[in-house]
Each structure stands twice: as C-alpha cells, then as structure tokens.
Amino acid sequence: MSPTKPKPRGIALIGMSGSGKSTVGKIIAESLAWPFVDLDEVIREKAGMSHADLLAQIGDEEFKRRAEEWALQMDTRGTVFAPGGSIIYYPSVMEKLRAECVVVYLRLSLPEIIRRAGDNADNHRGIVGFAERGWAGLIAERAPLLEQYAHQALDADDLSAEEAAQNILDLP
Fold this sequence. Notes:
CATH architecture: 3-Layer(aba) Sandwich
Order of helices and strands: EHEHHEHEHHEH
Strand order of the largest sheet: 2-3-1-4-5
Strand content: 5-15%
Oligomer: single chain
CATH class: Alpha Beta
C-alpha cells in the first residue's frame, strides 16, 4: 500500500459581502476539480437555519463563537473555501487558513460594494456589525485585517468573476 499523498494547499477567498467570494470560488473549484466549500452553507447546515436567522436569534457574539468553532473543525486543504466576511475577526481561524491555504483578498471599493450588495440594512441583517456600522464603517474596520491576513490581494472592482478567477489561478 502506498503512502497517502498529502492534500495540496487550498485557496481561501476573503473579502466583503458582494466581493464575489462564492461566484469566483466556484469557478476556481471547477477549474481545479476541487470541492468548493462556502462557510455560510456549512453554518446553515449545522444550525438548521439561515445565517441571518441564526444571527438574529443568538446575536453577534454567540454567532461569532459558533462560526469560529465550525471553521476550526474544517480541513480546507485541497478545497476552494469561501468564508463570510466576518471571518477576519477570528485570529485562530485566519492563522489556520494561512497555514492550509493561499489566502486571497478580493478587494472592492465602497461604491462597488454598494453597487453589488446594495445599502439597505434590511437586506443585510445577516452581516455581523452592519446594523451598527454600515458599509463604510465595516470597510474601515475590516480592510486592515483583510490586508493583514491575505497572502495576495486582488483589486476586483473592474473584473468579471471569470477574470478574477483566472487572475487567482495565475498567481505564483
């Protein structure tokens, strides 16, 4: 029996809501014939309810604790992983992702985030901190962490999902 070959490093896509993590991630996963894992889907499966409903039921802090626990249990090697935008609040998860994956930040400007995701608070009740800070406040708070944890950053304002995926596939 031959030894099991270790899984290759995965690809983790981080960024704000609307940055294309899931859309771009699915394209990359298909190109590499790797599984695509969306943490929001994992949360929905484990909690038995949507991300927004769970957040409304248990609040930001308990939601963050559970999301961190579930993310730490995952093996992201050999996958394309798309966590929610709040993943950067969990240093333990981000260090795990940096060890298992190439972490790519899909960077968007505030006007592009609003264009893609809208600016209606009722539509964003599933985003940790949105009700208190809105997009501008979340970007101000999260952008330094996104930059800190990313191995690579990709300015995605003017890129289609296919172009963004190809740029990531072409990274060294």
